[in-house]
Structures are given as structure tokens and as C-alpha cells.
Amino acid sequence: MKKLVGVLLILVVSVFGFSCKKSSKDTPDIKPPVFSTFDAPAAAQVYSAPGGKILLKTTATDDRALKSLVVKIAYKPTTPIAVIKSTTGLDDAWTQDDITITLSGASQVIDNQQIFGDLAGTFKSGTYTITLILTDQADLATTKTVDVQLIF
């Protein structure tokens, strides 16, 4: 009889233990999101004004839920003037406001979305760094940078 009670007690504890297992929603999110594919813009790609378009083609994924993708661009002043010379002689770098793309779900495809608008105007040609900051709902982030060539 004692053996039967012992076996029943083990069964009850086992069933109760498995039914009280924490769900993934109860555990903290510690995995940052990732760029599972990244096709554009490509490193060292050349874009020319007037009318050049910088396109973004990537797939963002997370183990839980994505939040946003921030895209920034900045002139990289280390470009030797002999490599790519401004056709206008102007010293002003091309600047654009940061772009925030709202994301949702565990995976999202961004397929050839234009970022920043058409290249236009008379600005400094050279290397520009595009920075992409991918964030999930837990505010964990992954950053990717790509250097491209802009010709004005």
C-alpha cells in the first residue's frame, strides 16, 4: 500500500510540475533581432545624382516580435579626394533625416523600399555610411553598417 501511495504521489507531482512550466512569454527576451537576409544596399555600391535611388532589401527576424528599423546616412570624411572628386566643388555633405520603419511580427520582408528619396542637388561626392538599427519589442537591437559611394 505504501508503494502504491508513493507511486501516486510521484505521478501527481510530475503532472503538476509539467503543467506549471513557464511559457516563453514569462521568460525575458535576451535574443536580439537579426537581419536574416541583406541584399541592398550593397557595400561599395555607387549611386549617382540626379535621380539615383537607394533601395533597401532585407529580411528582419526575431524570436518574439520586431519593433522598428531606423536607417541613417552620414558622410565618411576619410574618402581621398583623388578617388571620387565632387563635380561641383562644393564641400557640403548630403544629409537626410533618419528614417524609422515600424515593424511587426517575428519576421518582416522589406523588398526594394526606397530610403531617403532621390539623389539630387550639389553636394560632396564620396563614401557615405548607411547605418541600420533593428530593434525588437524588448528594445534589444542589432546594428549593421554599409558604405556606399554617392556621386553628385
Give structural notes.
This protein has 152 residues and is mainly beta. Helix content is 12%, strand content 41%. The chain contains 1 helix and 8 strands. It has one helix spanning 2-19, and strands spanning 34-40, 46-48, 54-61, 66-75, 99-102, 107-115, 126-136, 141-151. The chain has a 5-stranded mixed β-sheet with strand order 2-8-7-4-5, with no helix packed on it. Strands 1-3-6 form a 3-stranded antiparallel β-sheet, with no helix packed on it. Strand 7 (126-136) and strand 8 form a beta hairpin. The N and C termini lie far apart (90 Å). The model is unreliable at 15-19 (pLDDT under 50).
Shape annotation: elongated
Tell me about the largest β-sheet.
Answer: 5 strands, mixed
> For the CA atoms, what is the radius of gyration?
25 Å
Q: Averaging pLDDT over every residue, what do you get?
A: 83
Helix percentage:
10-25%
Strand order of the largest sheet: 2-8-7-4-5
Query: What percent strand?
Result: 35-45%
Helix count, DSSP H or I runs of 4 or more residues? 1
Tell how many strands the DSSP assignment holds.
8
Distance from N terminus to C terminus (CA atoms, Å) equals 90 Å
**SSE order in H/E notation?**
HEEEEEEEE
Give start-end ranges of low-pLDDT stretches. Answer: 15-19
Structural class label: mainly beta
